[in-house]
Design a protein that fits this description.
With about 170 residues, this protein is an all-alpha fold. The chain contains 7 helices and no strands.
C-alpha cells in the first residue's frame, strides 16, 4: 500500500518536528521575551516548565512503553527519525504545551500564537508518522498540567507574578 503525503506539508512537518525537539524553539522564544521584558525570571520559569515536562514525558514513555506507529504499521513510512522510546505521551507536545502555558500566563496576548505553535509542533509528530493522535493529546495535557503546577508554586513569589500592563 502506497500512501502519498502532500509534499509541502512534508517539509513543514519535518521542520516543526525539528524546532520542537527538546523544546528548543521555546527556549529561543523565552530568551527573546526575557530580554524584551527585562525579566530573567521568566526564562527560568520557562526552562523549568520545559525540563519538567520533558522529564515526566520521558519517564511515562519508558513506563507505558507503547509501540510507535511504524512498529505497528509498515506504511506509511515516517518522514523523520523514529525515536527508540515508547510513544505515549509525546515529549514534543508536553514541552510545547508547557512552554505555551507559561508564555500565555506571562502575557495573555501571546496565548493564541503560543498555543497555535504548540499545536502545530504536536501535529507534526502525528503527520511525520512517529506518534498516534492520543500521544500528542496526552502530551499536551501533561504539559499544561506541569506548567500550571509550576505557575501555582510560583504564584506566591512577588517577582514571578505577570506584569500588569496599563491600557
Amino acid at each position: 500500500m502506497v500512501h502519498h503525503r502532500v509534499g509541502w506539508l512534508n517539509w513543514l512537518a519535518v521542520d516543526l518536528s525539528w524546532v520542537g525537539t527538546e523544546g528548543l524553539v521555546w527556549l529561543a522564544i523565552g530568551i527573546v521575551l526575557a530580554i524584551l521584558w527585562r525579566r530573567p525570571w521568566f526564562l527560568l520559569l520557562l526552562v523549568a516548565a520545559d525540563l519538567a515536562a520533558d522529564g515526566l514525558s520521558a519517564l511515562l514513555r519508558a513506563w507505558i512503553d507503547r509501540d510507535r506507529p511504524p512498529l505497528v504499521y509498515p506504511e506509511p513510512r515516517p518522514i523523520v527519525g523514529v525515536p527508540d522510546s515508547g510513544s505515549f505521551p509525546s515529549g514534543h507536545a508536553a514541552t510545547s504545551f508547557a512552554c505555551a502555558t507559561v508564555i500565555a500566563w506571562a502575557d495573555p496576548r501571546l496565548a493564541v500564537p503560543a498555543f497555535v505553535l504548540a499545536a502545530a509542533i504536536a501535529w507534526s509528530r502525528v503527520y511525520a508518522g512517529v506518534h498516534w493522535p492520543l500521544d500528542v493529546l496526552g502530551g499536551a495535557a501533561l504539559g499544561v498540567l506541569v506548567a500550571t503546577a509550576l505557575l501555582r508554586l510560583a504564584a506566591g513569589r512577588p517577582r514571578l507574578r505577570p506584569a500588569t500592563r496599563a491600557g
